[in-house]
Amino acid sequence: MRRKASLILLAFAVFFAALSPLLRFYAFPRLAKIPPSQYQEAVLEAKPATLIDYGTMQPKKVDKLSIVQTLKGNVEEAKRIGKRTGRDVVVWDTLAYAEGPDGKMVSKIPERYIFDAHSQQPVHDKTEMADGHEVKREGIEFKWPFLTEKRDYAYFDMRVRKSAPIHYKGTQNFRGLEVYYFEQTIPWTQVDYPSVMPVKGITAKSLAGTGTKLWYTTVRKFWIEPVTGAPVYGEEIHREEMRGGTLLGDRDKVTAFSGHVKMREDYIRSTVDLVKSQRQLILLMTSYLPWGFLGLGAALLTLALLLEARSRRPSDPQSTRDSRPDPVPA
Asked: Shortest CA distance to 161 belongs to which of 134, 142, 181, 143?
């Protein structure tokens, strides 16, 4: 009986020991993915900021500039591109809408970001764009991979419309979460004017026709929760200048925008709460269950070996003598 029980325990021990790496290295990469219908909104603010006044072509100080960043999953496009590529694809249609303290539009820049739902690597399609311009992304944008590593990544900049390294700078604690801090610097680079300008009658084409160029630089900072790969906080020290041409008169350059953009406090709290809940789901598949199954397999193996050893133990000699029948007299 003991031998039969030990064999059953041994079978369960092998099952759970094999299930541990199977869950971590086979099931997790296939089950963990970004949902195609995700919707997200975040508000960032620069207090104070400097903006160009297109009436006087002079920079002016404002108390606050708000940027509403919306992200919406396009399910139909994800299905179309996924069918063409044979992959699980996510399509995010995003909009960065900036407005001044008077509520008037300063800029609005749309993007379409297409990537693999599991690895977050870009997937290319002719509809991939930044501010109406067709692009071919390399690297990541918005979202880091699950189980983010302590290394540099290529990060796409929508103004330059190219990718550049974003550097891992260390591990920090952010509101009770262990996060990886990343930083990217885009040096002064000539960029196109936004496709939609804030003043009627002024277009990107008309501005470019004056010979006045738009230059841009930024320092981009992200605090990433490494298990989910989700940014819990972000900042950007952003500057734009108009240089040369006939538009500025005798001036060489003028500030078009300058500000230290930070995520608004209420969105920081909601983002941290969301990431904490999602983090537990990822840890369940990558840590809690695999290690739990491995420990359970080891415990069952130990119990099986103990039962097998007891089943092989010889009987007590005294008990054997006591159990012999009495001799029958002749």
From this structure: 134
The predicted model scores a pTM of 0.86
Q: How confident is the model at residue 82 (pLDDT cuts 50, 70, 90)?
A: very high
CA dist 113 and 91 (Å) reads: 6
Distance CA 83, CA 17 (A): 37
What CA–CA distance (Å, rounded) separates 201 from 53? 14
Q: Can you give the pLDDT at residue 318? A: 54
Contact 294, 14 (CB under 8 A): no
Check if the beta carbon of residue 205 is closer than 8 Å to that of residue 190. no
Q: Between helices 2-22 and 289-311, what is the axis angle to 10°?
A: 160
Give percent helix, percent strand, percent coil of the chain, each to the nearest 5.
30, 40, 30
Convert 19-51 to b/e letters by CB count within 10 Å (16 or more is b): bbeebbeeebeeebebebeeeeebebbbeebbb
Q: Identify residue 12 by its one-letter amino acid code.
A: F
CA distance linking residue 249 with residue 245, whole number of Å = 8
pLDDT 10s digits, 277-302: 999 989 988 888 889 988 988 888 88
Domain spans, the chain: 1-31+281-312, 32-263
Helix (H) or strand (E) holding 14: helix 2-22
* β-bridge mates for residue 69, sequence order: 42, 96
Q: Which residues contact 104 (CB under 8 A, 6 or more apart)?
A: 198
Give the whole-angstrom CA distance, residue 270 versus residue 42.
Answer: 10
**Residue 76: strand pairing partners:** none
Q: Cα torsion at 264, 267, 273, 276 (round to 10°)?
A: -80
User: What is the rounded average pLDDT of the residues 68-83?
Assistant: 96
